[in-house]
Amino acid sequence: SHVLAIGGQKVDKDLPIYRGGMKEIERAAETSALRCADPVATEKMKVLIDQAREKGDSLGGIVEVISNCLPIGLGSHVHWDRRIDGLLAAALLSIPAVKGVEFGLGFASAALPGSAVHDAFEEKFARPTNNAGGVEGGMTNGQPLVVRLAMKPIPTMTTPLSSIDLETGETSFAHVERSDVCAVPACGVVAEAMVAWVLAQALIEKLGGDSLAEMQERYEKKK
What is the reported pTM? Predict the structure, then answer.
């Protein structure tokens, strides 16, 4: 996972590192204090976080999780409750403060014509684009699974919002307690675990077997 935005600060997706593949992004994110592969954006995000802390406020953001080397056909194109994108969305939206999930182009695809959205085939079934985010018809299609999460700002702030005192019924302020300013990088780590859990369940359902060795044998036969 890696951070794409915190507050209003976004990464520069035109940087070479974002075209270098998942390993390059992961390597850069692992060395970043905010799990962000863009070093310039990282410093600007730190400034925003410091400013929010001084104001007693909090910040949300966007994280992206990429899963590579997935077999084709995890999920279902027949059963609505077994669609892999539906299962992933349900799991990711269960993470506290996550308010939106998108795959591939996601919401951006709503403003584009079909010819600019759907991934065409070339020789040997290669596809130069991955606008679908690795999921088509409720199943993985063999391309990298790309899912993004929008996380709202943490609700507990040191500058409390107006509230109601339940004992008196009068206008008051929310209780002030210890609070982080931004948990977006941590959300990405949690999202990794949720994605892994759902994909593992789908793999078990597809391959079956009583042991990991048996599953590995069946997986090799399906390659």
Answer: 0.91
